[in-house]
User: Which sequence fits this backbone?
């Protein structure tokens, strides 16, 4: 399985390449008042607003800064019933692409944040999958992806 590798704090994490729509350089975001601290803001993607969450803040860490290798990873976030909406993930230190052996993935008996999945050895050390469908609680998802009236 091919994955995109990035850092959250000092540790390495990854996303399945099939879950990624695009990878963009970090850009200026519009602040969203009264949103959870891990919501970095809204980005303008060709005139459409796309919410962006900061993976470091979501993991309970203080983001260091925007680096030359900080990226916004666009994913299609599942809303249920087959519907999806675009969601940006602000990731410090995007490292690149690696291949993981599917047979090496294990739960490892470790309980962690709900959005974290299985672990496997990678080329540069242990990697843990970020599970897109478990990133947001139902309340936060409803706040970020409000239905627009017809």
Assistant:
């Amino acid at each position: 399985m091919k994955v995109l590798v990035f850092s959250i704090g000092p540790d390495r994490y990854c996303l399945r390449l099939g879950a990624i729509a695009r990878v963009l350089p970090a850009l200026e975001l519009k602040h969203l008042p009264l949103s959870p601290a891990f919501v970095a803001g809204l980005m303008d993607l060709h005139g459409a607003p796309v919410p962006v969450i900061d993976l470091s803040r979501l993991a309970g860490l203080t983001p260091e800064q925007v680096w030359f290798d900080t990226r916004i990873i666009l994913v299609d976030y599942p809303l249920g019933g087959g519907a999806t909406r675009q969601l940006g993930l602000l990731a410090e230190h995007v490292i690149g692409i690696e291949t993981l052996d599917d047979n090496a993935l294990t739960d490892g008996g470790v309980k962690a944040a709900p959005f974290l999945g299985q672990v496997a050895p990678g080329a540069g050390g242990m990697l843990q999958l970020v599970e897109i469908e478990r990133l947001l609680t139902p309340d936060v998802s409803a706040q970020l992806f409000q239905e627009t009236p017809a």
Summary: The two ends are 40 Å apart (CA to CA). The first strand starts at residue 2 and ends at 8. The beta strands are 2-8, 11-16, 20-25, 39-45, 48-54, 71-80, 83-91, 94-99, 116-122, 125-130.
